[in-house]
Amino acid sequence: MLPRSAKVLACICLLSSLSIGCSGGAPVPAENQVLQDSAHFVWTFIHEAKKERKSDVIQAKLSIMMESLNAQADAFGGKLVDLRDAGKSLQTSLQAGDPPAESVQKFADTVSTLVPEPQNMGE
User: Fold this and answer.
1) Radius of gyration of the chain from Cα atoms?
2) For a designed S-S bond to 73, which of 31, 82, 84, 105 qualifies (C-beta 3.0 to 4.6 A apart)?
3) How far apart are CA 59 and CA 122, in angstroms?
4) C-alpha distances in angstroms, 81 versus 30, 31, 66, 86, 89?
5) Structural domain range at position 80
6) How many domains in the chain?
7) Entry pTM
8) Is residue 99 part of a domain?
9) 32 pLDDT exceeds 90?
10) Which residues are the signal sequence here (predicted)?
11) What is the mean pLDDT of residues 34-47?
């Protein structure tokens, strides 16, 4: 059993380390880093959507992606707004009953003009 003073010292050390860790938040990510992360997420979606034949499944995955893109576009602007708008066009196309394969390919073409596909995505 530890003496009372050791327990108090351990509690003080624990509380001080927690307060140091919580007092300053992590720095806000740069727009470029957010764009790279979003691009990876979007390209992953594109590869999965190209394998999927059902429009409703693609739309469900797209709606999840769009939640993230909406928030990031609102926070950072720039090319993220263009990515979001491309996603909205894909949503509109799929909801109109356009063929999923063609719609996803148009989306991929648009995305490729905004952000290049990461090198190791197709593997």
Assistant:
1) 22
2) 84
3) 22
4) 15, 12, 11, 9, 12
5) 31-114
6) 1
7) 0.74
8) yes
9) no
10) 1-21
11) 94
